[in-house]
């Protein structure tokens, strides 16, 4: 069943009931300030770092769902309700939530009173704006009160929820007219504070949670709202909040609008301190003045919408496939931008505390946003490379605020280095900017170690060359892409303690997946060497790539599919020799998309095995058979129940690898079938099964071995977004950025008669019309550029042109 619908013209998903299977969220913010906003007004906000600079509290895994957010309570006589339904859950006469590009609109109607809240983070400002519009739709006068509510976090989200012996004594606030100032930590000279204000005189306020809620009460029945009168409480320690009371009267048909600002303020670094705890209120006043009127708020929202229109206009498809169009043109690219901002740090499944920006994650995410924000992609690459070690390995994660590697997680994920080559190659193909290779970048953020970025790539490449195991395959280290495949974790005898290295020679477990990565991205490294005039190094690199290719064919081929790995005992993982986990999805996709086994006939066999053994109606599972028992020598992968996560769940991140692989062998029908099965817009009508948002991808869907087959988890922050966009835009639709221009090489369903792409590439706008008169799946027979037929399928790049029209004809 559906819980809403797509409004394609407005680029919004419209939720028509608050009772969605899970909270369906949106992300507000595209610079430094971010809010996570659910369809019932739940969520929280932060500045730059969800752990270290969190403004408002959120309680995960709560009962009921999604309890705690940025709320507006309306007391109309004896009735108390919220425009977003939560937390009071009073049944509304009508409800609607519109999640758009960087904004959400909540509309509730109760007893003839309509309340609409438009929430967004304006560009150029460090705040969330909430425009509350109240309309009396009845034929009698309405006298009522509105109570706003947020609960402040004491900045460090981890410390906030653990260090109660200290934090219960640190909360401090001030009130400046209609502005509540949360200044906890300010006396420590941290220069920052939070504000929550409204652009009108107020009838009362509260800053102390216990006073507002009342003893043994909750968000659903706060005492102040029930009584209809604020207490003007001043928090001192305990839990500071922000709440304003506005009492008003509306004539029939009358409307009034108020602008609320929830923001982060910071004093200049050179500010002279007069005394501890005295807040410089100038930044707060400036922020409130920026949104003092409805017109100012509307102009900021219009600016935000125009930003997204310009951004999303860089890649646009028109085809007969409505679902594909809306995902490619809007939601997939939008999600890619969210992963740029968040990596895997802050969602409704990631607390924003345990993880920062991922090295591997951010490199892959770049595939989905480099065409949108190339200048920011460049800086992201520099940030990522700065966390690399001198030996070519890297911190697996880094904190977005400090941009320093996370020592708690450390390094040892041996696929990480190769992803840096992948990201840099994607950036240069998109931009033609080779100067990035000359950029001076430190190792481990130690400036004295800085070398050109090209040297970082060299060490990434050589790390794999110098870390190979008994079968000459790359050593897996702690894990490769699959963090749960920990093959160097074992116990020699039952009952012995958990170890992190192999039996005697050290960590000898090997990865066929990394070998496939090395083949694919090793070729990219060789190409970059050639274009830098390093011909000898390029030749040496290609020789290493060819040697790895041959190694995969010998040590990595199992007869009907590619082996996944070798464990610390040199036993095969992902082989017909195994009782469980005979075949894994990762090497079947990545080996083929790297070109391994295509000419030998292995590719078609491997992909046929995937379709026969791993495919299901909801997507391709990660492995089969699922592990029924725990295997210490395999690590975390077998710790999950069958059908969930890495133990035979449908890991959406690598389904696109299979789709791309199918395009490599010309199977357009099959490639699109794989794409369609996990595409949210195509499965919107089973939202009661899928449960997560029908407008964005999830990390995982429960596999066929699971009790809840088809149920998704971990939506929004997943590499699925970038890989799916790369798959549909470059492999299926076939518009591929390359070093010397755009390549047109679609592989589509035979029933698709054609499509038109608008693609902004290096300041040139290309309109590419692909025609498929003979129901082909792959193979360009003619390419016409501005009326002139050209050889091959690459559009010659001409920087002097601003508009280029291309016609490409498919013919088998």
From TrEMBL:
Top-level lineage group: Bacteria
UniProt keywords, alphabetically: Glycosyltransferase, Transferase
The keyword RNA-binding belongs to this UniProt entry's keyword annotation: no
InterPro entries per the UniProt record, alphabetical: 6-hairpin_glycosidase_sf (IPR008928), 6hp_glycosidase-like_sf (IPR012341), Gal_mutarotase_sf_dom (IPR011013), GH65_N (IPR037018), GH94_catalytic (IPR033432), GH94_Enzymes (IPR052047), GH94N_CBP (IPR037825), Glyco_hydrolase_94_b-supersand (IPR010383)
The keyword Glycosyltransferase is annotated on this UniProt entry: yes
Domain Glycosyl hydrolase 94 catalytic, residue spans: 307-734
Coiled coil: none
CDD domains: GH94N_CBP_like
UniProt-listed GO biological process terms: carbohydrate metabolic process
Entries under SUPFAM superfamilies matching the protein: Galactose mutarotase-like, Six-hairpin glycosidases
Pfam families noted in UniProt: GH94_b-supersand, Glyco_hydro_94
Domain Glycosyl hydrolase 94 supersandwich as annotated: residue spans: 11-269
GO molecular function term, any single one: glycosyltransferase activity
Protein name: Glycosyl transferase
